[in-house]
Write a sequence for this structure.
């Protein structure tokens, strides 16, 4: 088991150093406005996961706030959390997302984040989530927590569609949060092939959009015991 390195201690008189990793600059500005007058903090921003990882090393934040979806990747934030935990980063991590899916929320928690808060939450709730996580606690909105708790309830198993080896490989990549371009490069196949197979997967899994396909890909692989 890997030992996580604790975040550097800070004086109670110092502002909370908050690193926002989001590809929309306005989000960091929004956090600055939301926390003003509520929490004494210094907001730092990074526009990409790679920059966020670098900023963690150089700026030594007290807490990180990470968006799940960045660029073409629907789960870029999850992969950043996994990378941070893999190298022993022990600082609190709060996921800031628009996705209310309990499947994606559970994936983020399994990756090692300490809390989840929705982008459409009231300002007071966002600040509460940040403060709880910064103190070392866990924070998950009540409705999401209930949905996660109900996911494994006993029930009749739904019939699962049969997938070809290529469909299954692409489904795993989609569940990892890779874009069509990244999948094509990894599998050494054309973008068009990935797009066509993904459309077939949408039909088989009854997904209405790519975001919905990501959720259903994760659910399908979890139901079949396939490790992503």
């Amino acid at each position: 088991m890997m030992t996580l390195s604790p975040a550097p201690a800070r004086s109670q008189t110092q502002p909370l150093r908050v690193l926002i990793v989001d590809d929309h600059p306005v989000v960091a500005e929004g956090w600055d406005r939301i926390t003003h007058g509520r929490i004494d903090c210094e907001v730092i921003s990074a526009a990409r996961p790679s920059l966020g990882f670098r900023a963690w090393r150089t700026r030594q934040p007290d807490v990180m706030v990470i968006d799940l979806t960045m660029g073409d990747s629907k789960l870029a934030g999850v992969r950043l959390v996994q990378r941070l935990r893999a190298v022993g980063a022990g600082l609190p991590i709060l996921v800031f997302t628009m996705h209310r899916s309990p499947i994606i929320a559970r994936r983020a928690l399994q990756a090692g984040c300490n809390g989840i808060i929705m982008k459409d939450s009231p300002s007071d709730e966002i600040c509460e989530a940040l403060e709880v996580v910064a103190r070392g606690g866990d924070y998950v909105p009540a409705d999401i927590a209930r949905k996660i708790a109900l996911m494994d309830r006993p029930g009749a198993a739904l019939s699962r569609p049969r997938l070809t080896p290529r469909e299954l490989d692409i489904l795993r990549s989609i569940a990892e949060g890779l874009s069509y371009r990244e999948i094509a490069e990894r599998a050494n196949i054309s973008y068009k092939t990935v797009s066509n197979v993904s459309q077939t997967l949408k039909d088989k899994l009854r997904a209405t959009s790519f975001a919905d396909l990501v959720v259903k890909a994760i659910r399908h692989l979890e139901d079949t015991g396939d490790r992503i």
Observations:
- The chain has a mean pLDDT of 87.
- The chain has ten helices and five strands.
- The longest strand covers residues 16-21.
- Residues 30 and 123 are 10 Å apart (CA to CA).
